[in-house]
Amino acid sequence: ILAPAPAITSPAANANLPNGNNVIAGTCLAGTTVTVYDNGVTTGVTGLCAANGQYNITIALGYGSHVLTTTATNNAGASAQSAGRTVSVAPGAPVITAPAAASSDIIGPFTFAGTGVVGATVRIYDNGVEINNQVIAANGTFSYTVNAPALGGHNLTATQTSNGQTSPASAARTITVHNDSDGDTIYDEIDNCVALWNKDQVD
Questions:
Q1: CA-CA distance, 43 to 58, in Å (whole number)?
Q2: Concatenated DSSP letters of 103-115
Q3: What is the pLDDT of residues 69-107, one digit of tens each?
Q4: CB 146: neighbour CB atoms within 10 A?
Q5: What angle is formed at CA 100 by the lines to CA 95 and CA 103, rounded to 5 degrees?
Q6: Cβ-count burial 3-14 (b if 16+ within 10 Å, e if not)
Q7: Chain CA centroid to CA 15, Å
Q8: Interior CA angle at 135 toward 131 and 141, to 5°?
């Protein structure tokens, strides 16, 4: 006689799990071998159902959405698959490496750069509006240069998406772009207080 299908009790339905190893737990017929399936395909990972009718099996989950099911196998064969348990694995927020400071005052172009998951799509936002998207390089980095930024404040953030799962937004970098009042391409007190400089002034 085939064993009844096991039940999954953990993780919770619609849980957001970390990338890598995760424990799948549930109830089963003692002595049967429990196999875990991911999106209908066997993971090849099995565990023995303990005498108390419980199993705990560790499997590796990558970025994306996963429907987990299990079967129990005895001498008669494998049971039907359990009810599915849907979980997701989303990447963390990108780490911003440039600008290094949380806020800065500049003249002219600036570069926004960071690190993330190789192959993920990073989206860069300026004041909530997407200004660029790109695939994170094989070395885990991304970079985007704003060559002609508008004067004023720029609140820059980024997200990354891997296998349909999107991270939270990164820590923000706030950049204030100033007019280069004295034409020296360097932000200084002259640019902050234009009354100090008059290019037409005759000494």
A1: 11
A2: EEEEES-EEEEEE
A3: 999 999 999 999 999 999 999 999 999 999 999 999 999
A4: 19
A5: 105
A6: bebbebeebeee
A7: 15
A8: 95
